[in-house]
Design goal:
Helix 2 packs across helix 4. The chain has five helices and five strands; from the N terminus they run H-H-E-H-H-E-E-E-E-H. A three-stranded antiparallel beta sheet has the order 1-3-2. Helix content is 43%, strand content 18%. The chain has two domains: 74 residues, Winged helix-like DNA-binding domain superfamily/Winged helix DNA-binding domain (Arc Repressor Mutant, subunit A, Orthogonal Bundle), CATH 1.10.10.10; 37 residues, no CATH class. The radius of gyration is 20 Å and the shape is elongated.
Length: 120
């Protein structure tokens, strides 16, 4: 599900605060989410359910402090990702994708050479 700025505009104040918390931490356990937002578990679950339905966060089963719970992470918009560190000139790192590569491969050597030439 793709998200839009319009969907984020339609968030309630509590949902917006929850999303900001999840984004700023990069991920948070559900029980800590409730504590940080100062809401009870029922309201916290509703906020997370709504954010998940809108495609803004995802939750993963985990064990935290001996209890089964969820770890909530933000869903990043691909257009916000920075691939510049994987680039050498116009070449993408050979370690990205399905191609077999290692430190002795020709693809890696070419990529490193492009990286070196880019510095000058």
């Amino acid at each position: 599900m793709s998200t839009t700025a319009d969907e984020e505009q339609e968030l309630t104040e509590a949902e917006r605060a929850g999303l900001e918390l999840i984004r700023s931490t990069g991920g948070i356990h559900q029980s800590d989410f409730w504590k940080e937002l100062d809401v009870d578990s029922r309201k916290g679950s509703r906020i997370i359910d709504s954010l998940e339905e809108k495609g803004l966060v995802e939750r993963e089963d985990t064990v935290y402090e001996g209890h089964n719970t969820y770890y909530i992470t933000p869903i990043r918009d691909p257009k916000d990702l920075d691939f510049s560190l994987l680039m050498a000139g116009d070449m993408l790192s050979p370690f990205v994708g399905d191609e077999e590569a290692d430190a002795q491969s020709d693809a890696f050597s070419h990529w490193v050479m492009n990286l070196a030439y880019e510095e000058y």
